[in-house]
Amino acid sequence: MNIAVVGLGFVGLSLSSVLASKGYTVIGIDTDKKKCIEISKGCVPIYEPDLEKTLKIGLKKSLKISNDFSTIKNSDMIFVTVGTPQKINGEIELSMIKKAVKSIGQVIRKTKKNPIIFIKSTVIPGTIKKIILPILEKESGKKAEKDFGVISNPEFLQESNAIRDTKCPHAIILGGNDSKYMKKAKKFFSKMHPNVSIIITKYQTAEMIKYANNSFLATKISFINQLSNICQNIPDVDVDDVASAIGLDPRIGKLFLSAGPGYGGSCLPKDMSALINFGSSVGANTTFLKAVKKTNDEQINNIISLMEKKLGSISNKKITILGTAFKPNTNDIRDSKSIELIKKLLKNKVKISVYDPKALENTKMVFGNKIIYSKSLISALDKSYGVIIMTQWKQFESINNKLLQCMKNKLIIDSRRMLADKELNGEYYAIGIGEK
Ligand code: UGA
Fold this sequence. Notes:
Elements: E1 2-6, H1 10-21, E2 25-29, H2 33-40, H3 51-61, E3 63-66, E4 77-80, H4 95-110, E5 116-119, H5 127-140, E6 149-152, H6 162-167, E7 172-175, H7 180-192, E8 198-201, H8 203-231, H9 239-247, H10 268-281, H11 287-311, E9 318-322, H12 337-347, E10 351-355, H13 360-367, E11 372-373, H14 377-381, E12 386-389, H15 401-404, E13 411-414, E14 427-430
Parallel strand pairs: 1-2, 1-4, 2-3, 4-5, 5-6, 7-8, 9-10, 9-12, 10-11, 12-13, 13-14
Helix pairs in contact: 1-3, 4-5, 8-10, 8-11
The structure holds uridine-5'-diphosphate-glucuronic acid.
Uridine-5'-diphosphate-glucuronic acid (UGA) is lined by residues 122, 155-159, 214, 217, 221, 256-258, 260, 263-265, 267-268, 326-327.
């Protein structure tokens, strides 16, 4: 079985590495030549636990990396994993996926194979039928369902758990027509993941499942964040205790109920905006989804208000931000709430010092010399008027009174409640914990 994976971001690179490590012959394609050279050497351009190890196993077996689309001509299966970011107006940006399927169509024109093209990239319902299929048929001069198959196969992996989730997904969704290609796809996935449910449905339903999944996760987070703002104003209430208790109800479930500064990353925010836009375009009322998004957009302001309430004027004061990655165990800062916070504080002329165990290089690309980058917790905290913990890096649990001594004013705002059980000599406020 020859497999091609088009687009080597964290989804595509994880998928090609895992498939190759399992013994499939895999070609990973990316248009970025420099990136291809690095990956071919076993160097991973992103920080993702276990990815480098799995990539190296894959490369030793059968994984080849290329920026030349013609190398996929012998593929039986082609996975499309290119990004679908958002435009400034919130709509989905399809230029990358259009380009990728155009190139795939041109390869299909010349091949004797009857490949299946799996669309893993997140696309709004109707995109495969209305945009992707016509491009493939035009560029290949061949017919879908007869000469090649196209299946929607949304991805649910989480950054920082990419390899685990690629190896053990919670479900496989296959959207498309009932055809020989669908039967072949089902057989392939049943062999890859024998104990995982496979849902076979129509294109649009599969595309919608992905948005339903991400918007429900966003909903849980905004729900608990709104609740945390209420809890914070009631003495002796801890939102984590509330969340663990309600999480025991199987109708609610315990995951994704950790309050914080709001959801960030390259997926939930852009998928919420795309779904709201799409909903309106089909004439549906999206009041609820808009409220989830608004709750998320406002969460960061609560942190700033608390800081201003405690410090008075914050302008020209040094404030320490701990964590710029959108979550721990990644160096990804895309749509990170911490980056948004820094931008807002800079507008208030705050002097910012940041520390993140993995994401400082990426942070530098955004802020240049506008902020101070610290190589350690202690230098980040030195002479600071306040510290805000934004990302739940394990390392921040080590913060103690000795470390805080170097601060000018010991104001600690903990958006993740990491230090809630410590007796700290300072003013400590945690999102979701009522003042005593
Ligand atoms: C998300 C989904 O979880 C994946 O299932 C999906 O495949 C992926 O988007 C995608 O569409 O590609 P990811 O962006 O990696 O995955 O990040 P999450 O783990 O979902 O976290 C998103 C944000 O929510 C982070 O900022 C995180 O800190 C925040 N979060 C998460 C909370 O504030 N509380 C929680 O309880 C959980």
